[in-house]
Amino acid sequence: MKELVETIARALVDYPDNVDVEERQQDNTLVLTLSVHESDMGKVIGKQGRIANAIRSVLYASASHQKKRVRLDIVE
What we know:
Layout: H1 2-12, E1 20-26, E2 29-35, H2 41-45, H3 50-65, E3 69-75
Parallel strand pairs: 2-3
Antiparallel strand pairs: 1-2
């Protein structure tokens, strides 16, 4: 899951070296926290959150195949 989010985010941003994804388990949900350079926030979120929702949709589809619950948080 972590590698999937990193790959997608690195393809979208101007500063791919500043992309970082942290994993942690919270109850029975895997929480992924994506952090990017502050000037890349708009590229990862998109207009009205469309890109962020698309990333989450791909992530949820991948998680459902593995019978897991996942959440994606995006921070600076």
